[in-house]
Amino acid sequence: QRERVFAELLPRVWQLIDRIPYRRMLMAVGSNDAAAFSSGINVGVVRVAAYALGGMFAAVGGMAILAVTSTAAANVSQTYTLQAIAAVALGGTHLFGGRGGLFGSVLGAASIYLLGNLLISFNVNPSWLQVMHGTLLLVAVVLVGLAAKTAKVAV
Fold this sequence. Notes:
Oligomer: single chain
Shape: globular
Distance between the termini: 48 Å
Number of helices: 7
Strand content: under 5%
């Protein structure tokens, strides 16, 4: 039940952020901060707010891991770092900013989770899970880069 609270909280917070003008400003700053500044966006305030929101989400993520594992050790989250980055990149979020969303990130996380369960069910050595996550991250970054390059050529 504790996990369900966090799972229900994420879409509601995303809807809230999606409805306020801050999301558009954040995407503009992430895409091209000079152009965002030229259009009148206070880039410094948007960045500080982004770091503050990131810290808040990291705290909520820490509480979610605490709820799942019932352990408050500081090194518990180290195994999730590569998985989280790979899931977001696999979901289509540009790692340098300016593009991304909740739906793609959730699909990427589900793919990472399913891949991990599949490898475990085939009795693959757990150290190969990290290799697979790194490979997925590399593939996702290359695909996003190729898509961006193709979009620039098309314009």
